[in-house]
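Minutes, project check-in
Item: structure for the 331-residue chain
Input as provided by the requester:
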Amino acid sequence: MFLPLRLGSYEFMFPVIQAALSGYSDAPMRKIARQFGVEFTLCEVMLDQFVIAVSKRKSRLYFAESDEHPVGAQLMGNEPEQFVHAAKRLIDEGFDLIDLNFACPVKKVLGRGRGGSLLNQPQTALKIVETVRRNMPDSIPLTVKLRKGFDDLPESRKNFFEILNGSVELGVCAVFLHGRTVRQRYEGTSDWEFIGNVKRHLNERGHSEIAVVGSGDLFTPEICLRRLRESGVDGLALARGIIGNPWLFRDLAALLRGQPKPEPPTLDEQRHVLEEHFRLAAEHYGERRAATTMRAFGVKYSLLHPETEQIRQAFVKVKTATDWSHVLERY
């Protein structure tokens, strides 16, 4: 049995969320996740400067739609005041939680002192946390996204715990923690022993109410269940494992209830979800843009089909809604 996942005033009986996924976790993907039982999702990471500058006309790029609450927004940058302005706008746009990204390992991001580079700058990171928390309504939960550290050196470990402990003292309600260092990017394996140690560390310091949500290498329901049990974390954030495979949420929910894992989705079930995903994308972006946006999803969905390579090649060539329909009809 597992306890509900608590993020501020929100409580989720299914202790599994959809993580922020750059280039993927837009409104259509988040809605598909909810159809498979997820109670909380995060939108793709947004640069604070973009949120401040983008026109209202284009705000649909990150707008929290009325039928998907609660939903969180993840912010990235390096200047406390810009974080505040961006967070306020996102709250005005309807987001229910603000997550601060101190984890992104992309080289371009690091070169500009954002994302994972802040794990090397504990004073700046904590200034961001303090400034955002102080200027946000108390009703809006604040969380931080961290990695194991910038690298595996002792100084990096020291910085990690300075940021972790300081963030908790400043009022974050949860930590989304990936078990690789920034230097590792997505190479090697996620260190779930470290993630579990972080949860125990917080418990020992009297902060058992602070949720630790672990992520990294969560690709099957069996692995997810094992990580949740062995690490003692409060919840899981599924990321790459659910791109094109929302059935992972369904399968994990069954195992958490002590039920057998459902059979893999049939081709008819896959087609239904592909049609629904495209319909949501067309509503959100318009058919023309949806056709190109959905290509990347089609490639991921193809991994479940017995003719994976043929499907992948077909989706890569999709340019219109008609092309999309033809791929579904053929395969």
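Outcome recorded: DSSP finds 13 helices and eleven strands in the chain.
No further action items on this chain.
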